Amino acid sequence: MQNWLPSSKNYYDFSKLSQVKLTTQLLSLVRDCLIGLVHNSIKHPLPMLSNLTQLLALEDFILLASGTESIENDTFKTLTTLKTLELWKNKLRRVPSALPANLEVLKLNDNSICALHGSDFEGLSNLKVLELKNNLISSLSPSMLSSLVSLQSLLVDGNNIESVTGPLSLPNLKYMSMEKNKLHLISGNVFTSLQNLQFLSFSGNFLTKIPINLPKSLLSLKMERNQLKVVRFRDMRHLENLSHLYLSENLLSSIDGAQLLTNLTTLEASQNRLQMLPPRLPSRLQKLDCSSNFIQRVTAPEFQDLRDLKHLFLDNNVVSLFEAGALQKCSQLSNLALEQNLLLSIPLRLPKTLARLDLKGNAIQDMAERELRDLKQLQVLNLRNNKISALDLKALEGLPRLRHLYLDGNPWNCTCSLLRAREVLKAKGTDVKGGQCAAPAERQGESWMSSKKILKQCEHHLEQNERGKETKKKPKPEDSSSIRPSMDDDDDDYEID
């Protein structure tokens, strides 16, 4: 039964049809009925399904984007083996009635359902997944969901929900998402009975504070895109299992007290109003994202206990001071993002474990050996859009694992020394995104990574230099006054005339 159904998922998804149990004699009848559903836009009830209820032992029924506006009462009632019902992207205005008791997954996303009633889910004691994303639901209360004692996942993103009252009696709920609604306040008793909840998202609402009395079982809390001005960590200190906290795109001017969340491993606070890094962060933190704020300084005290930190994002701030060795205690740091700041030089004594260093869009003028000599694990270095005009050969030779180097957007002085640096990079197998020459004037706009003219000019200078060495007169042994140290060296720069 794999070949006769349309493969497009824009209409009717029967990818799990292999689970449908049919007799050989009824195969052709079922085929005709299902193909009819696929190719027709259904604006009325589905009467043909009632004719099939004696014929099918369906476990999965998925109807996508068919234009269905209503479903006849009790249509699915006798499908006693049905476990999954998905009616996505239709025009349903209510939850289908009298759903079979064995149902485990119900997905009604992208419809026009305005309200939920307790009777909608009566008898669904086996339901584990309920998705109602992108409908028109305006409220959520305990009476609507009281029958769903086995529910593990509840998704109601993209509705018009303004309030949630409790307690929600869903003892097995583990995942709850209410993103992109119109929530201003969450009642304090909503979570009283949600003692197994692990993942909770209220992103994209109008909340001014984090809800209180969150369940101790919580592992992840998403609060991005709200209107938080302050986070009271003392109201969250009981969340001893919380490992991921997302606070990006709020109105926070400071974050203090996060050390109370002792098992926190991820803290994201980008696009806020932070003027300084959060002090006293949890020692188990592995990822800190404070990008797109107004942070000016990076000093050692903020990082002295963060020995497990692996990813640090400080891009799009106004960092002008980066204390030498500020991150030395971060002995596992592999990814450091400092793009779009005000740095004049590459920070000194960065952790030896760095694999990626992003410094795009600063005012760095030099790439010196002392700044990079310890970064033996570095694989990606981004120095785009700075003010670098030359490369230090010794600095490049001290980066044995460098695989990607981004150098475009700098005012390169296209000397022969720069060309030698190019050869070193090519020999290392480094993928280089080069840039254009700013000097000398006659080479402006040319790419120093690909210009054959510059390479030919440098080869000519090299040949002249070698010939000059060969024709030099050797001083007479007895004439010590004529001995002078040679000023010629293969590492000298030669300006391109």
Please tag this protein with its features.
24 strands, 3-stranded parallel beta sheet, 7 helices, alpha/beta, about 10% helix, about 500 residues, single chain, Leucine-rich repeat, LRR (right-handed beta-alpha superhelix), disordered C terminus, 17-stranded parallel beta sheet, disordered N terminus
Topology at a glance:
Layout: H1 27-39, H2 47-50, E1 60-62, E2 84-86, E3 105-107, E4 129-131, E5 139-140, H3 142-145, E6 153-155, E7 163-164, E8 175-177, E9 185-186, E10 199-201, E11 220-222, E12 244-246, E13 266-268, E14 287-289, E15 297-298, E16 311-313, E17 321-322, E18 335-337, E19 356-358, H4 369-372, E20 380-382, H5 393-397, E21 404-406, E22 412-413, H6 416-428, E23 431-433, E24 437-439, H7 452-470
Parallel strand pairs: 1-2, 2-3, 3-4, 4-6, 5-7, 6-8, 7-9, 8-10, 10-11, 11-12, 12-13, 13-14, 14-16, 15-17, 16-18, 18-19, 19-20, 20-21, 21-23, 22-24
Characterise the protein shown here.
With 497 residues, this protein is α/β, with parallel strands linked by helices. Among the domains are: 1-112, no CATH class; 343-467, Leucine-rich repeat, LRR (right-handed beta-alpha superhelix) (Alpha-Beta Horseshoe), CATH 3.80.10.10. The protein contains 7 helices and 24 strands. The strands form 4 sheets. It has a 17-stranded parallel beta sheet, with no helix packed on it. Strands 5-7-9 form a 3-stranded parallel beta sheet, with no helix packed on it. Strands 15-17 form a two-stranded parallel sheet. The longest helix has 19 residues, at 452-470. 34% of the residues are buried. Mean pLDDT is 83; it is low at 1-43 and 476-497. Residues 488-497 have a biased composition (Acidic residues). This is Nephrocan. Residues 459-469 have a biased composition (Basic and acidic residues). It comes from Rattus norvegicus. Residues 431-450, 459-497 are annotated as: Disordered.
